[in-house]
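quick one, 69 residues, struct below
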Amino acid sequence: MEQSKIDRISQLTQLSRQRPLTQQEQAEREALRREYIEAMKESLKSQLDHTLVIDENGRGRRLKQKPNT
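---
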């Protein structure tokens, strides 16, 4: 996510502490927050996809995603 969008989230949050946000500002902040959360999830998933766990024999194995229940 671009730094300018993160800065805009911070700006809107600070503004909300000073006065109520308009509906347009609230919608913008929520959309930016959703985008930020998705970017963080993708980043974490990528990091975990490239993580190896070393077993007791010294062999590395990739992490596997657990099935959803």
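The CA atoms of residues 52 and 62 lie 5 Å apart.
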